[in-house]
Amino acid sequence: MKKLFKRKISFFLAMIMCFSCVASASAVEVQDSSEESDSFTITVIPNEEADQYLPEELLEAIVEAETAEDSSDVSVCGTSIPKKSKKWNLTSDERYDFSVSTTYHTIYSDYVFTGHSGKVKIHLHETGDNGGEYIFYLYKRDGNKTVVMSKTIDQGTTKDYTVDGIGSDDLVYFAIVPTDNVHTILKSSYIKKG
């Protein structure tokens, strides 16, 4: 029952993000380096709206990242919700490697990313062979609004994306959401400064 509830909440969150008040997001440019050219769906929502659905730990990490100095905490697991004092500077800490294995749960990045100088590169290597899909969300927190970039991606593929037009002070984080209870396995994936 609890798994079904979490799944419904994840789906509800995804639907709200997709159909929320869409504003102009022309400043964000996404380039797909894969063979087929397809782009992210971009939605702009107020931070308050984005915050109401975030897990408490991620919200704490964002608030701290917006108000505190760099932290020296480092971890490399990449499969849990960000916790307090979890900023990763893509300039000084360099590339952030992660792996994800999930069937029912939304998995958030362990960190809120800074030091990207306005551009990030994302490498997603999904090894599942169930014929399903997963959704990759990239969040860009800019002042009083959050830009949500989402992309539904086929399992068993490797995708490379470059996202620029991010403000140098913007906070960036991501989430992986499995669809239709299909096991999603990302290995050797990363986000780095563009």
Provide an overview of this structure:
By secondary structure, the protein is of the alpha+beta class. 18% of the residues lie in helices and 40% in strands. The chain is built from 3 helices and 12 strands; from the N terminus they run H-E-E-H-H-E-E-E-E-E-E-E-E-E-E. The strands form 3 sheets. It has a 5-stranded antiparallel beta sheet, with no helix packed on it. It starts with a helix and ends with a strand. 34% of the residues are buried.
List keywords for this structure.
five-stranded antiparallel β-sheet; single chain; 194 residues; globular
Strand order of the largest sheet: 1-10-7-12-4
| Model regions low in confidence, pLDDT < 50 over at least 5 residues | 15-37, 69-81
What are the secondary-structure elements, in order, as H or E? HEEHHEEEEEEEEEE
Structural class by helix and strand composition: alpha+beta
Taking all residues together, what is the mean pLDDT? 75
Could you give a short account of the major beta sheet? 5 strands, antiparallel
Q: Helicity range of the residues?
A: 10-25%
Q: How many strands? A: 12
- Per DSSP, what share of the residues sits in E-state strands of 2 or more residues? 35-45%
Looking at the structure, what is the overall shape? globular
In short:
The protein has 194 residues and is α+β, with helices and mostly antiparallel strands. The protein contains three helices and twelve strands, in the order H-E-E-H-H-E-E-E-E-E-E-E-E-E-E. It is 18% helix and 40% strand.
